Amino acid sequence: MTVHRAALERIELVRGDITHEATDAIVNAANEGLRGGGGVDGAIHRAGGPAIMKECRKIGRCPTGTAVVTTGGRLKAKFVIHAVGPIYRDGESGEADLLRSAYRGGLQAAKERDLASVSFPSISTGVYGYPVEEAAEIALRTAADELSNAGSLKKVRFVLFDDRTLSAFSKAFDSLQAEAR
Q: 24, 41, 145, 162: which one is catalytic?
């Protein structure tokens, strides 16, 4: 699939804390039970307050590779899109398709609500063990594909927690830019 240069111009990479983002929505690297947890998931629930968990309980579950939306609670972002990425096993168990589907679900949820901007973490690369170099390429290519289609979405930010993850995403982004030339 061809990467469109115009789509790449709407993608940003930053190092930071996703709970401080003021985009229309932030994406949570959630678990299937929408229970909150550690890492990004726990940080979003703590910062956003109990309103997020209240809505998660009403929703109940979110299968791997899909996404659901709740309020942003006390966050600057109006919405939290809970996307469930796969637990990495061996790279041969459909993980790439599930990760791609989780990112696509988050992007489509933003488009369905006519949002202009959304911030993503690096889904599945923490305790779920997905190799960050592979995950970065999937995340960025999926974002570029979705941004190539008509819709309200003008900006996709990847808010990456540490230098290692930012570096992996930067290398993958540079490769996509070279491909788009």
A: 41
